[in-house]
Amino acid sequence: QMADPFLYNTGERSQYGCLGHEVQIEHIKAYVCRPSFFTDKAVIVIHDVFGWLFPDIRYIVDLIAGHGYITVCPDFFKGTDPWKPTDHWADFADWMKHHDPMKVDKEADVVLKYLKEQCGAKKIGVVGFSWGGMAVHHLMLKNPQLTAGVSHYGIIRDSEERYNLLNPTFFIFGEKDHTISFDQIILLEEKLKQYCKATYKIKVYPGQVHGFAQLKPEDMKPADKPYIEEARNDMIDWIKMFV
């Protein structure tokens, strides 16, 4: 019997009134939020397994936009079903085969083109959570157009090529994340030290489980709140430093 993939309960969520709007970018739908003033800086947000419609991820988009970035969360599942909290964990591996976080390059290119040509973006960063954290890790190895990345609890496993990051990348982990062992984080650190020429940072937040960093304030438990807020500030600081 395997553990459930996500320890956080996705059922108990407060409603969220989004500040942005939806757009169609070639074959992809996307949620976009812009700051109230002109900027040529942008951030792509990559959702977790619950997809681009999930309120938590839209909250993150709005939050980053509030810091002065054109922020966009594309539907990287291209209209196919996201994972649902009611789905059976036994089917997860099969679902992942059809939703590979290392096959996001085409969609990322479409969104980069949109940000540069339609929005006038000159510097573009990327932030991702869980499934999206793996996608960020992958893209930071492959796409030099992305100025900086923040990967939340997503490690690409079983590949020697996964350490030569092209641009500054920040890896955020929860100490109690049962999907990523501490050994994997140590290995990541050792290998980055060996192979990575770009700036990188790894930080583990005490007591935090998988999925901790994308909660809205009213959904946070008081004991977790300081760590979630710290991770969020660290994410914004990293983006501001490089994008």
Summarize the entry for a quick read:
The protein is an alpha/beta fold and 243 residues long. It has 6 helices and 8 strands.
CATH architecture: 3-Layer(aba) Sandwich
What is the element string, with H for helices and E for strands?
EEEHEHHEHEEHEH
What's the mean pLDDT score? Answer: 91
Report the span from N to C terminus.
44 Å
User: Uncertain spans, ≥5 residues at pLDDT below 50?
Assistant: none
Compute the CA-based radius of gyration.
Answer: 17 Å
The CATH topology label is: Rossmann fold
Number of structural units classed as domains: 1
Family: Belongs to the dienelactone hydrolase family.
Organism: Bucco capensis
Subcellular location: Cytoplasm, Cytosol
Main location: cytoplasm
Please describe the topology of this protein.
Elements: E1 21-25, E2 28-33, E3 41-46, H1 55-65, E4 70-74, H2 92-97, H3 105-117, E5 123-129, H4 131-142, E6 146-152, E7 169-174, H5 182-195, E8 200-205, H6 225-242
Parallel strand pairs: 3-4, 3-5, 5-6, 6-7, 7-8
Antiparallel strand pairs: 1-2, 2-4
Structure notes:
The protein is α/β, with parallel strands linked by helices. It has a single domain, classed as Rossmann fold, CATH 3.40.50.1820. 30% of the residues lie in helices and 20% in strands. It is built from six helices and eight strands, in the order βββαβααβαββαβα. It has helices spanning 55-65, 92-97, 105-117, 131-142, 182-195, 225-242; strands at 21-25, 28-33, 41-46, 70-74, 123-129, 146-152, 169-174, 200-205. The chain has an eight-stranded mixed β-sheet with strand order 1-2-4-3-5-6-7-8, sandwiched between helices. β7 (169-174), α5 and β8 (200-205) form a beta-alpha-beta unit. The longest helix has 18 residues, at 225-242. The protein is globular. The mean pLDDT is 91. Its main location: cytoplasm. GO terms for molecular function: hydrolase activity.
